[in-house]
Write a structure and sequence with these properties.
heterodimer, A: 842 residues, alpha+beta, Aldehyde Oxidoreductase, domain 4, Aldehyde Oxidoreductase, domain 3, six-stranded mixed beta sheet, 23 helices, 30 strands, globular, B: 298 residues, Uridine Diphospho-n-acetylenolpyruvylglucosamine Reductase, domain 2, Uridine Diphospho-n-acetylenolpyruvylglucosamine Reductase, domain 3, five-stranded antiparallel beta sheet, 11 helices, 26% strand
């Protein structure tokens, strides 16, 4: 500590260059700063769970069910336990004695489901763990796991959600039904709208397929259950640890403060690592049984594909759409069946989360849906990027697109007629959500300009004259961010969740360095960079001077029960918290500087001086560096007057969005704070000979309000687009009728690679959110726009052939069969149009 | 990677490799590029007790032009073939080498390993079946040379005897006026093809096909030599009609299985489309045109 320096009023140093003007420091928010994280990640110095080697660490290997549905009649671990290096084992029946079943979020019948971290007397999906072997090395554990003898009595499996509704095969006898949750959503006056409709379009069945995120890093946990302290430490990659600890504490029968959860670098989650907490429980139990030695479990790729989490599959049945003479949608009525796989876990939240975007980008006011969620003998689902809204938005985009084709209205014109107008924001949806800002028609115009719409229309005309199958499709989508957990009450009035929050701690350390602790769990979204930008702007320093702690750690106390990374919200909850904490810190620094410099508060300036950041008195040479302020509080506090004794320079701020509880009777209320939008246009040709769908051109326009870091936004846009294109054309979790996953390896699942990616023509619009401190909106999930745009483009390419695109996944083989069926006159009659001249006149 | 335990043996010569195989018996597997074997061991779908590593045997990796022949050492990597000027003179070889999986696989995977593995989706087999190709094998009883056309027995099964391995692959260089092309439809670079077609033609007067080799991959238990499709071209002018007839004959010759890559009916249709295209490309090359050929990635 530089004790001899006069820190109260520094004499001006001899200056050669003019000092930078204070309070005019660069505005870092909005700059395309390269990510702070990159330094370690690009050099291979990132720290992932598997990089941790702890003294005495053991390794856990799981024995998993080869069956989709079976009774477990007997487990014998004696041979495995006798192997060299094996320390202990766990079995389902043993685990059931050690833990309570996980909490079910929903009400009955779903609440009657009994969910343990291992299958106990039954297995309900292929890959469900039935036993674990803990050994000195992973290899020894894997070898011994092959010697665990499990006797199964295979049961018939149910893999189709509509079959599951019939309850002929029951997954959970305790629930007595496969239905997890069902509810009616009814807004406006649907019946009246249908009476007044000029056209009614009937769509028999649409299907949104099951796919996953395939993050580069699979699930991973190290747990150490310290027997002396009765305290569990987790090193993991769970992406919503605040949720996980609430589940784990109840299941393990401990208090939340008997657990420490840490993450560091995470190789992607996309939401699906939210539900890896059963594995955290198993590692904790294994550690306790092994006498408190740390236990590591690293999921293999095949196990990840089979048994981690997939996205929700959904069937849309008996849809009716009422339209007026000009193609404006008046009402939609439908029945939706969501498939959550074998256990609900984070579900049935998906049964309500779609309602954040109930009308999509459209103005219709009348909507009725009966929503049912069922269990099937497939991998449990997790909140996969675009969670629940993507499925619904794909449905709406298919509806809009099919109606446009059926009524002969061009796809862009159909959308312009139906979009919510720019002058209607903030726009209250039929179910009470408030869309903060946007201009969908302008996004469409911008995307059309980027892709060269008229040019492509002309090229398409010429290609069609040559018999080629070229289609142009529009996908409009919303990325609703910062969710109100009050929506869980719409599913379960007794759910003790509501609102949302973000936490940050900004600290001026003993040596005057600025550090930030966040409550988020970054997995590539650049939280270290963007929060440094925000804090740098408040404290008038450069972002390099702001060190943001990587990862998440409950011991930083920078979290609430909402903390995690999900629901496209960091730009709002995380950055608002960082901003609030930085402002708190700045206020304390001002109070100290008033004292230290003996100046009036309104004369103080913050900024970079010749020797680093300082607070100065405007128009004078009096200044105190930040480290001087820190010194006063931390190591020199005898000089402080009583009125400054409350100053800590360690400022925690909790940001709470202004949410209220929704009206449960009407299922009405604001479910999300911000609405980013994306508009994609895809041009696709289906090859007449090979049936391979080839993307000829692709435009993406995004609007996430004020852009905090254009580089990061661009990266998220590219990632979300790749994810969606992969899902639309390559990736599908394909099960046979016995519940066997057919494509559990990358070579069969085929995650998207660069050869599959078109060059993106990107465009941006900035509609600042009126509801956030800097106009930014959360983004990153992307709303599944490529699924919508590609389905629409394929529809456009094949409509004249009599093909209706009724599935979100299409590939060369499925397109071949769609075209073959229409050629043979065997096309399914999916769509029917009923036009009523009399009604049109009314 | 967590394979079952195995013992690793490093062979210093072909002779030593053969004698190790003879000594260790069926529980031993050869390790060449490892691009099929290692993933199978990782998944514990293959669990050899012994691995005999060929990678340290000198002089097993080369592309050697010689009297109208091209000799490939069994351990020649796909990437070496891709980069070899001698191999580039036979465009179908370059199409094949440059299009195998991704760069990591091409850097490790070997030509001999690919043929010996006899994966129904392997790339080299259909390509080399369109050229006069021989396989030089070494076993306990010495060396023998086999035409590649007699090499494949079934999926993952060849005529190689126990303790026998491939030493060299010998391709006869096609005469002037020849051209070939190899096309695959793949969902992405590293995954197996949905279907592949290899076509090698010789044109008598730039129009009439005097010789034709057509082979199909990934659409049967073994690579399929489409003799009727070849016959449909041989001695014929290359008109849309004859090309269509050859493509239809190729579709009829294949025997695809339905899987995640596509239904049997789709693959049959795809084979026809690929053969049609490959004939057109091969003909252009036979006429001396420089044509870049790339697989089709869905």
């Amino acid at each position: 500590m530089p004790a001899k320096r006069n820190i109260r009023a520094r004499k001006p140093a001899a200056r050669k260059a003019p000092r930078p003007k204070l309070e005019e420091a660069a505005q870092w928010v909005g700059k395309p700063l390269p990510r702070k994280e990159e330094g370690r990640l690009v050099r291979g110095k990132g720290k992932f769970v598997d990089d941790y080697e702890l003294p005495g660490m053991l390794h856990l290997w799981l024995v998993r069910s080869p069956y989709g549905h079976a009774r477990v009649t007997h487990i014998d671990v004696s041979q495995a336990e006798a192997q060299p290096g094996v320390v202990c084992t766990l079995t389902g029946p043993e685990v059931a004695k050690l833990v309570r079943p996980f909490l079910e979020i929903g009400p009955e019948p779903g609440a009657k489901i009994v969910d343990y971290p291992m299958g106990v007397d039954k297995v309900r999906y292929q890959g469900e763990p039935v036993a674990a072997v803990v050994a000195e090395t992973a290899l020894a554990a894997a070898d011994a796991a092959e010697l665990v003898r499990v006797d199964y009595e295979p049961l018939p499996a149910v893999v189709d959600p509509e079959d599951a509704l019939r309850d002929a095969t029951l997954l959970h006898e305790s629930a007595g039904t496969n239905v997890v949750w069902q509810g009616e959503f009814d807004y406006g006056d649907v019946d009246k709208a249908f009476q007044q409709a000029a056209h009614i379009v009937h769509i028999d069945r649409l299907h949104f397929h099951r796919f996953t995120s395939a993050p580069l890093e699979p699930n991973a946990v190290i747990a150490q259950w310290d027997p002396g302290e009765d305290f569990i430490t987790f090193w993991c990659n769970n992406s919503f640890p605040a949720f996980a600890i609430q589940f784990l504490a109840l299941a393990l029968g401990i208090r939340i403060d008997q657990m420490r959860v840490q993450t560091y670098d995470i190789g992607g989650s996309f939401g699906i690592k939210i539900t890896n907490y059963p594995y955290m429980a198993l590692c904790a139990l294994a550690s306790r049984k092994a006498g408190g030695r740390p236990v590591k479990w690293i999921e293999t790729r095949t196990d990840h594909m089979t048994a981690s989490a997939h996205g929700n599959e959904r069937v849309f049945r008996s849809t009716r759409v009422a339209l007026d003479t000009s193609g404006r949608i008046l009402a939609i009525e439908s029945r939706h069946i969501d498939d959550c796989g074998a256990y609900p876990r984070y579900e049935p939240l998906g049964c309500i989360i779609w309602a954040q975007v109930l009308p999509g980008a459209y103005r219709f006011r009348n909507y009725r849906v009966r929503f049912t969620q069922v269990t099937t003998n497939k991998c449990p689902v997790g909140p996969n990027r675009g969670y629940s809204r993507m499925q619904h938005l794909w449905f709406l985009e298919r509806v809009v697109d099919i109606c446009a084709h059926a009524l002969g209205i061009p796809a862009d014109e159909m959308r312009r007629r139906n979009y919510i107008r720019a002058d209607e924001f903030p726009y209250t949806t039929p179910n009470g959500c408030v869309y903060d800002s946007g201009d969908y028609a302008r996004m469409l115009a911008l995307a059309q300009e980027r892709i060269g719409w008229d040019d492509w229309k002309e090229k398409q005309r010429r290609a069609r004259a040559e018999g080629r199958l070229v289609g142009i499709g529009i996908g409009t989508t919303l990325d609703s961010g910062t969710n109100n957990f009050g929506q869980s009450r719409l599913l379960n009035p007794n759910a003790p969740f509501s609102g949302q929050s973000g936490v940050a701690i900004v600290k001026l350390g003993i040596d005057g360095n600025i550090s930030v602790s966040l409550g988020s769990v970054p997995q590539g979204q650049g939280h270290e960079t963007t929060s440094a930008q925000v804090v740098a702007d408040v404290l008038n320093v450069t972002p390099e001077l702001v060190s943001v702690r990587p990862g998440f750690d409950t011991e930083r106390n920078a979290h609430t029960g909402h903390s995690g990374t999900y629901a496209s919200q960091f730009a709002v909850t995380g950055l608002s918290a960082a901003h609030g904490a930085a402002q708190k810190l700045k206020a304390e620094m001002k109070r100290l500087a008033v004292f230290a410099l003996n100046a009036k508060e309104d004369k103080l300036e913050f900024g970079m001086g010749a020797q680093g950041p300082e607070v100065r008195v405007r128009g004078s040479d009096k200044a105190i560096p930040y480290w001087g302020l820190a010194n006063l509080v931390n190591v020199n506090n005898a000089v402080l007057p009583a009125k400054l004794q409350d100053v800590t320079l360690n400022c925690r701020y909790v940001y709470r969005p202004p949410f209220r509880l929704p009206d449960l009777k009407r299922k009405y209320g604001n479910l999300t704070l911000t609405y980013s939008a994306q508009l994609h246009i895809a041009v696709i040709e289906v090859d007449r000979d090979t049936y391979v769908p080839r993307i000829l051109d692709y435009a993406v326009v995004d609007d996430c309000g004020r852009v905090v870091n254009p580089l990061i936004v661009e990266g998220q846009v590219h990632g979300a687009t790749a994810h969606g294109i992969g899902a639309a054309l390559l990736e599908t979790c394909s099960y046979d009728e016995n519940g066997n996953l057919r494509n559990a390896t990358f070579s069969d699942y085929v995650p998207i690679t660069s050869v599959n990616m078109p060059t993106l023509r990107t465009g941006h619009l900035e509609s600042p959110s009126p509801f956030t401190f800097n106009g930014a909106k959360g983004m990153g999930e992307g709303g599944g726009a490529p699924l919508h745009a590609i389905s629409a483009a394929l529809q456009d390419a094949l409509y004249a052939q009599g093909v209706i695109i009724d599935d979100s996944h299409n590939n060369a083989s499925s397109l071949f069969h769609l075209l073959e069926r229409t050629r043979a006159g065997r096309a399914a009659q999916i769509v029917r149009v009923e036009s009523r001249a009399a009604a049109a006149r009314r | 990677m967590y394979p079952r335990p195995f013992r690793y043996h490093r062979a210093a010569s072909i002779r030593e490799a053969v004698s190790l195989l003879a000594e260790l018996g069926e529980e031993a597997k050869l390790l060449a590029g490892g691009q099929s074997l290692i993933p199978l061991m990782k998944l514990r779908l293959a669990s050899p007790h012994h691995l005999v590593d060929l990678n340290f045997i000198p002089d097993l990796s080369y592309v050697r032009p010689e009297d109208g022949l091209l000799r490939f050492g069994a351990l020649t990597r796909h990437a070496e073939v891709e980069a070899s000027p001698a191999a580039q003179q036979i465009p179908i070889l370059h199409d094949c080498a440059a299009g195998i999986a991704d760069v990591q696989v091409r850097n490790r995977g070997t030509l001999g390993g690919s043929l010996a593995e006899a994966d129904p989706s392997g790339d080299w087999a259909p390509v080399l079946l369109t050229l006069p190709t021989e396989v030089v094998c070494v076993g306990p009883e010495g060396e023998r040379t086999l035409p590649l056309a007699e090499f494949f027995v079934d999926a993952y099964t060849t005529v190689l005897r126990p303790a026998e391995l491939i030493r060299e692959v010998v391709v006869r260089r096609p005469p002037p006026g020849s051209g070939g092309a190899y096309l695959a439809v793949k969902r992405s670079a590293p995954v197996y093809a949905t279907a592949t077609a290899a076509v090698q033609l010789m044109l008598a007067d730039r129009e009439t096909c005097s010789e034709a080799g057509i082979a199909l991959g990934a659409v049967g238990l073994t690579p399929i030599k489409a003799a009727e499709a070849e016959a449909a071209l041989r001695g014929q002018r290359l008109t849309p009609d004859t090309i269509t007839r050859a493509a239809e004959a190729a579709s009829a010759a294949c025997d695809p299985q339905p899987d995640g890559r596509g239904s049997a009916a789709y693959k049959r249709a795809l084979v026809g489309a690929l053969v049609k295209r490959a004939i057109a490309l091969a003909a252009r090359r036979a006429r001396g045109e420089q044509v870049e050929v790339s697989h089709i990635y869905a």
